[in-house]
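Figure S4 source data
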Amino acid sequence: MSILAKIAEIENEMARTQRNKATAHHLGLLKARLAKLRRELITPKGGSGGGTGEGFDVAKTGDARVGFVGFPSVGKSTLLSNLAGVYSEVAAYEFTTLTTVPGVIRYKGAKIQLLDLPGIIEGAKDGKGRGRQVIAVARTCNLILIVLDVLKPLVHKKLIEHELEGFGIRLNKQPPNIGFKKKDKGGINFTATCAQTELDAETVKSILAEYKIHNADITLRSDSTADDLIDVVEGNRVYIPCIYVLNKIDQISIEELDIIYKVPHTVPISAHHRWNFDDLLERMWDYLQLVRIYTKPKGQLPDYTSPVVLPDGRTAVEDFCLKIHKNLIKEFKYALVWGSSVKHNPQKVGKDHVMEDEDVIQLVKK
């Protein structure tokens, strides 16, 4: 029996099962089995396997990577060529783009790599079309732009989200607040710091037993679902911010546009007429959460043209040194920082000081 047939069987059983307290335990088990089968689909067992297909993975350049995901012919290539000036083959029939087309834009001093991924079809997570490779590239992005046709957005949005979820990509979510630690002995130690609506000790044990884990500490710090627990146990989930780009707004009325603007995480644009690109770029910048640090050589003015760009959460002075050169930290004595992260300008700081956007730094070596 093939993996796909097994998956279909489990999905059918889940659809048949009523959801209530008595069946929660059974559904949790089925979800865990499903997650395991999905993982086998993504990473086939053993063997050297076929090549990944030519020209798929693109070298990572710039400070952040943004992937365009969407069905064929929603205007991803038009959007890329108008944003970055890169010519990605554009035609009126479906599946024009067959491999990943990279482009780079400079925005607020940061270099952002844009990837035009081939169109996704339904069933990509089960290995149909070029889906598996497309989604594998999408996993490496810092931000995903789901490009939708404004005339048929909701159907597409649901399908694409379902495909990405099946590959372990979680959009606009935070990792679940669950502590999970394997042990050698001592059984399953289950603690919940707040009231749980779905999980209880029994369900948690059965889900872990499905993964052949019989000794572990589980701490639930928020009201979690079985899916959250499975995500933590699998440990290969990526949490990526996402913007829904509704293209072709030149085909709808102003009243409809006002309604669209109220939807969260959404930017309406027209790639063909280049409408509302500035709003899209601004929103991309907000979601990427990049921090710009300007350098200042001794006795000179700061260089405001080419900042060193760091990802949010890794903005200590040490990270800054490593970004420039890995040997720099060995010679590091202290740094002088001007900006919003210090109490007085300039302030003498050590390598653990965390900097904020648009700070100016001067390094002093030993």
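Figure S5 source data
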Amino acid sequence: MNNTHFAAMGSMNSIKPESPEEVIEERRTISLTCKYEGAIYNIQWYRQYQRSRPEFLLYITEGGLIHPTLSDFTTHINKTEKRVDLEIISAKVSDSAVYYCALRPTILFTHETQM
């Protein structure tokens, strides 16, 4: 009799901001950085204004694919240092908000057949 087992295995995934707060002058460029651990499918960025729900901005895959590509923001990933940056070019007062980074982990499936 053959028995086949499938198991979903997630690695220890985590993500956290490098700095809890950034303050800059208007019209300056700012990079917000998050460091991650584990295998990722993508990293997402969100913005939340006071008394509002979080708003999706964009995501980047480990391979560097950015979606959506038409945005007021840009993002970069460094797989070696396991860090991702959200860049706000020419920041305005209206960009003042809480920014969140979140990761979607890669789920690894193992397949084992017993006879």
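Strands lie at 3-10, 14-17, 30-37, 40-48, 55-61, 66-67, 73-78, 83-88, 98-105, 107-114. DSSP finds no helices and ten strands in the chain.
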